[in-house]
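Office hours follow-up: a student asked to see two folded examples consecutively, so here they are.
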Amino acid sequence: MLTKTLITRALLLRGVTNAANNMKQIKRNAGHGVWTYRVPPPLPSKRAIYLAEALGALAWYWILYHCITEPDHIFGEFTYVDPSTYTDEELGIPPDSVGSLRK
């Protein structure tokens, strides 16, 4: 019975020390990758380059396709009206015969 208790305590102690060692390892390797000093970083893999190119091409396709098929998003939905075509009534200007400055 005594040996069984000692064995379980030893296993628990070993588990605690392993956890402490793992925390030290995590803290030491917290750089998230290969750390280099005065050396160029490693190049990305071919797969990462191809994936980035494909996503960039898809984004530009989406933008240019919608610029061509739906130009109203850029230029507006309505035609531009020349302001000189508005009448005084539409602009809210009273006629010359009304007001304190009449002749």
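And the second, which I mentioned at the end of office hours:
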Amino acid sequence: MSTESIPTINVLFKEAKRKFAELDAYSSSTREAHEHQNALCTLHKEFSMIQSMVERLDFFSDNESFEEISTSYIPFLALDYYIASVSMRLEFGELNRAVDDDARRQYKLKCLHEARRRFLQFLETLAFFGSVLNSEDVQLLKLLKDGSSSDVNLSTVMKNPYERRKAKIKNFKRRKELEDKLRYLDQSFTKRGSDVEEIKREYFIDEIRLLVLNTLDNIFSIDMEMGMLEKMPPHDQTNYTPSMHSKKDQALRVEEVPGKKRIDDLIGPGGKILQPFTITKTKADIRNAVFGYSHTLPSMSVDEYLEYELMHGKLLNATNTKEEQDEHSENSDEELYARNWDDWKDDHPKGSGNMKANIG
């Protein structure tokens, strides 16, 4: 094999970053695919191999400042960032997808711990050489380094909602400015040529600063996810079903009060309530209702409901109603005629007409 066919470390790094951008653009459902996880594992190995090559070639020295670093070496300062970004996206990696939930949770926690450590290493490297991080980034890095991952994290550093919102707005403005500046510098490469040393160096530095903003957001997400995974109960406890208890226990199930777990402590003799309590559903019903509807769905159509009401005599059939109305109308006319005839007989006694006719 000729030396011309061997890819250089710059080519390998650019290709690895291109693959990462493609994999990161996939949808969340695709990221769970076994092929996608295998691709992430392969990419993790490629970035790690490139980092080993950089260490063997001594691109960076502890005795030099950031201004003394070669312009072409600056992008390699982000290797820890890319390794961490791949690690935090691993769900089950090369494990079998059908592995149990506990094994996947432990694997995910391991990947998140590695990602957090790599992100901090990325920030520490930049802080060591200087000229990239601002004073606020350095202060935040110091707070993150002073304690363990469970004691100090971004969520505890910015507990005040107002301060957290202000930091988000500030980071958003910084991100927008950096993205606009990178687009402008990219156009400068095209117009003036990529051999302009000052433009290349400024572009690489701003690209690193944009990755710093992503790093702070990723650490915040990692801390939240690790907190939830560490508090998650084992898989055998999450498979609880009400059938594990007898029907008698289910019938007497009430909300437990600390120190008083028997129903006799809540309801005294004669049904007297000793202290307030709440009758709850089973855990399965409550869990299923979380993603359910907020209202009761209909169990029958309108036609079925009307038929049910007619069968039980709660509604009258239209035909019967019309016949009853006609019958009621006829009865009313007969009654009216009889009432009028009675009134006439009262006003005209029997024989009164003949008596008047025979009077001289």
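Two things to take away from it. Confidence is low (pLDDT under 50) at residues 148-152, 240-255. The chain has 14 helices and no strands.
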